[in-house]
């Protein structure tokens, strides 16, 4: 029996769970379409990053196998086989979605199905909006085949003269989805609504585009190229780090191809011609697909005025401890407070930063930023703080994948306003989520801290399940300050008593905590381990979990994405159970719980258990000391483990079977958590809240 599941193969299994949501008839139709787009968007990033890395390693030959423990060429071949198999499943799901849309009198049609009124409408739209944006390239007129952009899809056009069929030629058109919507709503007909894709609007107008030429037959086939998007940052000391990042981002458009998707109906001769021009060989991932690509655009599918076909928006819950005090500073001084997103509002973070920006007692604000919202209120509050004379220090991580350009923009904007901006730590990516405010008070400086599992991003806080701890506990704020000092003077390695911090002591401390459970179970004491993570793929920690399992320690693993554990194997992992939840909100929070002989230890963290998070990033794992907050986290995790609607069993065969128990009551964790927090924050709540085991209906409460 294999000890570890390859992390890339396990990721593909996770994305299959996303596709299951697109296929689930219990999910509202428009949200199923959105999940279809998420699946495709995820897959794009997977090839741009994971497959790109494997492709690089494959070029190293035998040293790569020794370096990563398996043959990257074999994994690449398996990925290609799985990709083609799952494409068949994807097409089945898409076809079913079209059928379900038709039941709602919504039809996606192509250029051959337009009625006269729709033809007139499409012609006007093409002439006024589309044609000016199109710049065809005649392939036989250029010396070099054009470089295909990473994010774009293209139509390869075969132009034929019916009087002289041998005299044909080819053209290339990029779909201008950066300036035009992918979907056009057509005039309705007999109470039925119609949508046409931009691809087919272009097909509709091909004769106009090429009217200057002597062709009367046109066939258009969609192609798409995915490139290696990993950054190559050179060691040129004469360039600033920000210039190096900018240059590397631009070079992404020239990255080597890692996947080529094409319309399966494309003539073989034309396909071979394109493959030759793109230098694609037998070892590359070549995917014969359907007529349409870039299904990620379906994440923005028009709602057609049918709001009942999607999840109701959530009514964000207030937090009782903040509601009782208008001053967030005052509330934080009373006790630690834990926010649970997206169930509770991110507004408290913005309120704290806004208050800090104008409070004359506040002297400084320090914060780590990894991904921020497009129109970031967090950044605006920091700028306002500087304008009001506060000392603001921002650690901006420029290497946040695919957010590099946005972070460069914000870094420049902050610097223009007088914010002191640091660009991470050489050789390490700063992924910790920290904000520390220093306020001058009667008894001297007082620190107010926020420590989180997710970014300071008001947009993702509405979609991602995350936690932020608001604290004035000196044990924690003192160590927060040490982390910020390390950003300033990273040649000095700090010592931490309460925090677990990568890359300094995360592996050592996690292994020690697992060892403690092994020792306790052998001594007849209570023992268990619960991890909630995005990814679990570190072999040394997994091996230690196997050791704990065989010692008799019950282990619950709630993992959303990469999962390299092989659970429920006799004499290896018989006491390990793995589950993954995919539902309306993205499960992003990271929590560690160790029984510790009955005196449980609770942690929230920015770190997944992967080598990169443990060894090559600055991550902070923070203990939760407040007993009330420990009970909150226990209830949160118990509700996750009770899910018998959206939880999938993570097993050695990656079957993605839904977890079902003997209960006649349906427990859907995200709804149950919402209702638990709703009751917890009512004015009459007791000090030790009971776990709400019966979630109210979605229609009633969310």
What does this structure look like?
- The chain folds into 4 domains: 1-101, Up-down Bundle (Methane Monooxygenase Hydroxylase, Chain G, domain 1), CATH 1.20.58.310; 105-301, Polyphosphate kinase middle domain (polyphosphate kinase like), CATH 3.30.1840.10; 320-488, Endonuclease, Chain A; 500-701, Endonuclease, Chain A (2-Layer Sandwich), CATH 3.30.870.10.
- The protein contains 21 helices and 26 strands.
- The longest helix has 32 residues, at 72-103.
- Residues 233-239 and 684-702 have low confidence and may be disordered.
- It is 37% helix and 21% strand.
- The strands form 4 sheets. Strands 14, 18, 19, 20, 21, 23, 24, 25 and 26 form a 9-stranded mixed β-sheet that branches. Strands 10, 11, 12, 13, 15, 16, 17 and 22 form an 8-stranded mixed β-sheet that branches.
- Helix 2 packs antiparallel against helix 4 (72-103) and helix 12 packs parallel to helix 13 (377-387).
- The chain has 702 residues and is of the alpha/beta class.
Low-confidence segments, given as residue ranges, are 233-239, 684-702
- How would you name the oligomeric state of the polypeptide chains in this document? single chain
Residue share in helix: 25-40%
Q: Look at the structure and give the CATH class of the largest domain.
A: Alpha Beta
Task: Calculate Rg over CA atoms.
Answer: 27 Å
Mean pLDDT figure: 91
Shape: globular
CATH topology value of the largest domain? Endonuclease, Chain A
Number of strands: 26
Structural class: alpha/beta
């Amino acid at each position: 029996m294999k000890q570890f599941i390859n992390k890339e193969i396990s990721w593909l299994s996770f994305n299959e769970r996303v596709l299951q949501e697109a296929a689930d008839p219990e999910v509202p139709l428009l949200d199923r379409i959105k999940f279809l787009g998420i699946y495709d968007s995820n897959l794009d990033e997977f090839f741009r990053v994971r497959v790109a890395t494997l492709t690089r390693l494959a070029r190293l030959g035998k040293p790569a196998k020794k370096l990563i423990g398996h043959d990257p060429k074999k994994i690449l071949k398996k990925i290609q086989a799985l990709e083609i198999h799952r494409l068949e499943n994807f097409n089945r799901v898409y076809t079913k979605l079209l059928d379900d849309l038709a039941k709602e009198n919504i039809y996606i049609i192509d250029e051959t199905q337009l009625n006269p009124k729709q033809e007139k409408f499409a012609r006007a739209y093409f002439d006024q909006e589309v044609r000016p944006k199109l710049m065809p390239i005649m392939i036989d007129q250029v010396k070099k085949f054009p470089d295909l952009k990473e994010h774009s899809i293209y139509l390869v056009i075969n132009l034929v003269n019916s009087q002289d069929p041998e005299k044909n030629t080819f053209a290339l058109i990029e779909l201008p989805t950066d300036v035009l919507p992918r979907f056009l709503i057509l005039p309705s007909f007999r109470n039925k609504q119609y949508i046409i894709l931009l691809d087919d609007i272009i097909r509709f107008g091909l004769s106009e585009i090429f009217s200057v030429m002597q062709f009367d037959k046109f066939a258009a086939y969609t192609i798409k190229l995915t490139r290696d998007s990993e950054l190559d940052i050179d060691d040129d000391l004469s360039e600033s780090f920000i210039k190096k990042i900018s240059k590397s981002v631009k070079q992404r458009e020239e990255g080597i191809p890692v996947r080529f998707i094409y319309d399966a109906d494309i003539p073989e001769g034309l396909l071979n011609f394109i493959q030759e021009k793109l230098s694609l060989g037998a070892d590359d991932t070549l995917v014969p697909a359907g007529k349409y690509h870039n299904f990620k655009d379906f994440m923005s599918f028009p709602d057609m005025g049918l709001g009942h076909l999607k999840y109701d928006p959530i009514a964000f819950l207030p937090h009782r401890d903040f509601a009782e005090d208008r001053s967030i500073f005052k509330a934080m001084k009373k006790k630690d407070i834990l926010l649970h997103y997206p169930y509770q509002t991110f507004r408290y973070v913005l309120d704290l930063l806004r208050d800090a920006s104008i409070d004359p007692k506040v002297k400084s604000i320090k914060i780590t930023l990894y991904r921020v919202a497009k129109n970031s209120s967090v950044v605006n509050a920091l700028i306002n703080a500087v304008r009001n004379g506060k000392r603001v220090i921002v650690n901006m991580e420029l290497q946040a994948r695919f957010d590099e350009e946005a972070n460069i923009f914000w870094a420049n904007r902050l610097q223009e306003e007088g914010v002191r901006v640091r660009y991470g730590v050489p050789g390490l990516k700063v992924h910790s989520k920290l904000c520390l405010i220093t306020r001058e008070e009667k008894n001297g400086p007082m620190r107010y801290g926020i420590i989180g599992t997710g970014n300071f991003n008001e947009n993702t806080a509405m979609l991602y399940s995350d936690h932020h701890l608001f604290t004035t506990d000196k044990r924690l704020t003192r160590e927060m300050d040490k982390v910020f000092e390390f950003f300033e003077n990273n040649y000095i390695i700090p010592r931490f008593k309460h925090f677990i911090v990568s890359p300094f002591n995360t592996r050592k401390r996690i292994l020690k905590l697992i060892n403690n459970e092994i020792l306790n179970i052998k001594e007849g004491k209570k023992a268990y381990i619960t991890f909630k993570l995005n990814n679990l793929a570190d072999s040394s920690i997994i091996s230690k979990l196997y050791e704990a399992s065989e010692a008799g320690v019950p282990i619950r693993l709630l993992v959303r994405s990469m999962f390299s554990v092989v659970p429920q194997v006799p004499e290896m992992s018989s006491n390990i159970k793995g589950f993954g939840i995919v539902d309306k909100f993205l499960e992003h929070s990271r929590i560690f719980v160790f029984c510790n002989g009955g005196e449980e230890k609770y942690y929230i963290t920015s770190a997944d258990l992967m080598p990169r998070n443990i060894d090559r990033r600055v991550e902070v794992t923070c203990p939760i000391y407040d007993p009330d907050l420990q009970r909150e986290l226990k209830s949160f995790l118990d509700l996750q483990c009770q899910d018998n609607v959206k939880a999938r069993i993570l097993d050695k065969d990656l079957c993605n079977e839904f977890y079902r128990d003997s209960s006649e009551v349906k427990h859907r964790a995200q709804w149950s958590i919402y209702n638990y927090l709703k009751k917890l924050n009512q004015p009459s709540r007791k000090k030790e809240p009971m776990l709400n085991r019966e979630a109210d209906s979605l229609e009633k409460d969310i």
